Amino acid sequence: MRLLRFAAVCGMVVAGLIAVPASPALAADPYTFTHAGNPILADGTYYSADPAPLVADDQLYIYTGHDEAGPTTNDFQMNEWGAFRTSDVAAGTWTHYPSLARPETLFSWATAGRAYAGQVVKGPDGRYYWYLPVSERVSTAADKFAIGLAVSDSPTGPWTDYLGGPLISQRVPSTNDIQNIDPTILVSGQRVFVYWGTFGQLRWLEYQADMKTPVGTQKSITGLTGFFEAPWIFERNGTYYLAYAGNNAGPTSACTPANYHACIAYATASAPEGPWTYRGTVLTPVSSTTSHPGIIQYKGQWYITYHTADAAGGGHFRRSVAIDKVEWDDTLSPPRMKQVVQTPVKQRDRTPRANIAQEAKVTVSNDPVPTQYWVKSLNDEIVRGNPLPPDMWGTWTGSNPPQQWVQYTWDQPMRISGSQIDFWNDQAQGTGVGVAAPAKWKIQYWNLATAQWADVPNPSGYPTATSGFQNTTFDAVTTTQVRATFDASTNGSTYSAVAVEEWKILAAQPSSVASPSLVVETGETELPGTTPVVFGSETLQVPVYWDPIVTDSPGTFQVQGSVLGYAAGKVTATVTVISPGDTAGDVTAPTLTLTPSGSAGTSGWYRSAVKVRAAAVDDRGGRMTIATAVDGGAVASVDSVRYTDVSVSGDGQHTVTATATDRAGNKSAAASLPVKIDATVPVSTSSVADRAVTVAATDVTSGVARVEYAIDGGAWTLYSGKIAAADSNKHTVSFRATDNAGNLETAKTATIPADLSGPLSGNVGPIAVPTASYTAGWNSVTALNDNADVANPGQAQIWGTWSGTRAATQWIQYDWARPIRLTGAELKFWRDSNKGTGDGVAEPDGWKLQYWDGSAFQDVAGVTTYGTSSTAFNTVAFTPVTTSRLRATINANSNGTTYSAVAVTEWRVFADDPGTVVVPVTVTAAPRCIAGKAYLAVNAHNSGADALDITLDTPYGSKAFAGVKADAYQSFAVRSAAIPAGTATATVSGVTLNAAYGALTCN
User: Which GO terms fall under biological process for this protein (predicted)?
Assistant: First the structure.
């Protein structure tokens, strides 16, 4: 298992727990219980994880860790190891050994806690050996995890330390730099193989039959696609299998869509040494973020043990062990494991409730969603007390747009009147970084009459608190789609991301729902999927989920079902069962309807793939044969059904046709339905010139309907031409396009730079372009001049340089579009470590400011002292200098061997500048050869009427000219036969003019 390096589900009643005796007198006392299902112990009295199965004395043992974290603790609290034992997996009678060993009592050299995943094997000498990861009490290693080895004559102990120190660590038997946990062991005759590792690093080492003497040196394993942690080695019929927790995440991954989830994948080899070949996945992600396999054969059946969060009160750090069968495909070479079917199979929750979001299709503006988040969490009806990223939908990428949205779509029109949303944040509103509650948001519904989005009528308000569900009620509307649009929180220049743990949509409640009468054929187990629900003068066909039925003979019975969104209780239907052969006298053809469902757009377009349901009704109540075709293609015919669904995809215009034939052979007239799809958002681009933004947009299918823009987070306005700045300040322009199908592009931004031609005073840092020698991936160089001085900044509000290798010197730099007269600066450092550690982020030893003189950086003059405080701004005044670049060079603190990183929260630079002085002077520079020597000729031409004082500067000397009316010319001797490329400058009335020149070699 791993310790997650990032920031409780509701309890459930566990059925089938037949008997649990009174609690044992001591925590370590074994006790027996019966529970034929998963998790093995499901009542929440004890959470177990990291299963390691062993067959001994015709018994199946499953050794586990013990999760003891609280409901909202996001860390592994594991202080001991235990085990389950059974002689009959199907019967579900288990003996539980809750506390077989603790790290600090078993190994005198280990600390308490961190009792992570271990494995017990039977050694060649007949004794039992337990390989256990622990943390060393005293170690000079960077990572103190080590693997200890305990021994016992019995599978349940007592256990003793076999070595008196680590078997494997970063120091023994040879050095390594990985985290040494998750051991798995293969005993093959007199040979012993140990495999271990995590965080994508997997090693192996052979040992002698004494279990402790290494053979050779440790080696790395490759070929395991997506390997993350939790290896498990076993052999079957001469083939070696290595299962592991995989984490190759992404929307098209066969493993997992989210980084925080794991699948169980595996590879095979013909020998324990490898090489290994990846063979695919065997277990899909479970309900906990981590996953850990243990695979073994017992009494002729192969099993996989793993853990989930499915016990009562369970969670990511309150896991419980489960067991399921492994089946094999022996037609392949080598044989492959089939996909494991987790039991019990998840069933739809048919509890009556007003929420209907769980049955909606979800679409979001940031598809594909960043892999740390999981879009399914939006409507899974799970809200955790302290969620991890896959427990929410989020949008953080480090460069966040000003607006995002979430949309729900239902196949049938639904009557809705409320919303409950649960926001998550790690930053306050107004910071423009991290994840914050939106500045504002609103709910819109798809108006079926106008085929347009409209704001829900009379909303009670749109609260943005991040402490529980935020409620909004509104007048009831009938729709197939609803969306929430979020305006991201901003500091005026950058935007925070948005995250939502859960979004519920509440259905309007009818006064009652009538009990329907239904007709089915014998052998038919599916009842009609909708039932009529009356809302005043409007009747809707609302989805209903019926209890299972048996229809093995004609007759009548009653069944209960849950109507989607109806919270008052279940409805009861009377079901009449008929014989399918009763067709005498049937001469009436069935009626057929084609109903599309998808994300409906405007003008008859759909913004997604479309499902067309061909549903038929026969006057005798029987099932039919329905034939369908798309765009005149092959006909698909389905027998003995009441409906069939046709999938239509691809941008463009399509046609679906269908017919229905009843049991008596009566055929309906052909039905036809046009389907127009434009699922591609329009694309807009921008250009900035003369402090104005021009926007262009294209859409290849339905065409562009409109382009909108907003300035600095203001109201959206229809674009009709260039967007010019209204003043001299810097502005951010957001823009987006909508096509004729209603696809709304995620807003983009363009920046109108500040007009620097006028006088400048005060802090000019925000109008500079910041750069740095290095920036850590979780920090931001733009934090330097975001004009925010936050008391407790998040990592994205800091410029920092932490990395594994830290330099002695780092620098930050501001560039302006023209030279500015600067008079001073101030910056505030940030720290998380003390000076002298050589690690973390510490206040620096010192720093200095340098300005660009046209060819090189020079120290500013007149500074008395440079402070290094991380609690207050360190202010520096200097002799005024006119320049377009200013750099702060920072000397990191050291322990004598390594350097700490440096970090700055804000850097202000102050100006007292008269504005741009336009001078009628042009400067040219050209290298020349005279008698084999190089010279640099510089000329400044004054085209104005007034005489000007001009100073020429080059790397080879300077020359001042007074009262120049035409030209100031000087040829500077290089004193060499070659001159490199460079820049000459002319200073006129405080304005610096540059003239670049090329290299020249004189022969």
Answer: xylan catabolic process
Per-residue HEC secondary structure of 641-681 comes to: ECEEEEEECCCEEEEEEEEEECCCCCECCCEEEEEEECCCC
H/E run at residue 350: none
CB 177 within 8 Å of CB 169: no
Spatial CB neighbours of 36, under 8 Å, sequence gap ≥ 6:
16, 18, 90, 91, 92
Spell out the alpha helix ranges (H) of 20-60: none
Residue 341, number of CB atoms within 10 A of its CB: 11
**Residue 42 to residue 22: CA distance in whole angstroms:** 16
Between CA 214 and CA 218 the distance in angstroms is: 9
d(CA 585, CA 288): 59
Which tokens hold the place of 631?
A: 């765009």
- How confident is the model over 128-164, as pLDDT tens digits? 999 999 999 999 888 999 999 999 999 999 999 999 9
Rg for the chain (alpha carbons), in Å?
36
Residue type, 907: W
Structure tokens at 902: 């440096």
For residue 199, give Cα distances in angstroms to 179, 195, 202, 224, 233: 8, 14, 8, 13, 18
Length of the chain: 1003
CA distance 748 to 760: 30
Least confident of 294-298, 770-774, 788-792, 921-925: 788-792
Taking the C-alpha atoms of residue 459 and residue 475, their distance in angstroms, rounded to an integer, is 7
Under 8 Å between Cβ of 745 and 737: yes
Q: Do the bridges between strand 145-152 and strand 643-648 make them parallel or antiparallel, or are there none, so unpaired?
A: unpaired
| Number of Cβ within a 10 Å radius of residue 698 | 12
pTM above 0.90, yes or no: no
Q: From its phi and psi, is residue 854 left (phi > 0), alpha (psi between -120 and 50) or beta? A: left
How many whole angstroms separate alpha carbon 468 and alpha carbon 422? 6
Give me the amino acid identity at 227. Answer: F
3-state DSSP percent of the chain in helix, strand and coil, to 5: 5, 50, 50
Count of beta carbons in the 10 Å neighbourhood of residue 827: 26
Q: How far is CA 241 from the centre of its chain?
A: 31
Q: Are 168 and 146 in contact (CB under 8 A)?
A: yes
Closest residue by Cα to residue 273 from 372, 352, 204, 350: 204
Mean pLDDT to the nearest integer, 684-709? 96
Beta bridge partners of 61: 54, 85
What's the whole-number mean pLDDT along residues 60-83?
Answer: 96
Query: Residue 844 in contact with residue 827, Cβ under 8 Å?
Result: no
Buried b or exposed e, range 412-443, using 16+ CB within 10 angstroms? bbbbbbbbbbbbbbbbbbebbbbbbbbbebeb
Share of the chain above pLDDT 70, in %: 97
In degrees, rounded to 5, the angle at the alpha carbon of residue 200 between the alpha carbons of residues 198 and 206 is 65
Sheet holding 692-698, edge to edge: 683-689, 692-698, 723-724
Strands 636-641 and 605-606: unpaired
Alpha helix stretches (DSSP H) within 399-473 = none
Instruction: Please report which residue ranges of 690-752 form alpha helices under DSSP H.
Output: none
Query: Are 63 and 51 spatial neighbours (Cβ–Cβ below 8 Å)?
Result: yes
The DSSP output letter for 105 is H
pLDDT band at 916; cut points 50, 70, 90: low
Instruction: Report how far apart, in Å, the C-alpha atoms of 838 and of each of 773, 828, 844, 867 are.
Output: 19, 20, 11, 20
Above 60 in pLDDT, residue 19?
A: no
Cis preceding-peptide flag for 368 (omega within 30 of 0): yes
What is the DSSP secondary-structure string of 238-294? TEEEEEEEE--BSTT-SSBSSTT--EEEEEEESSTT---EEEEEEE---SSS----E
Q: What are phi and psi of 623, to 5 degrees?
A: -85, 165
Ramachandran assignment for 650, one of left (phi > 0), alpha (psi -120 to 50 degrees), beta (any other): left
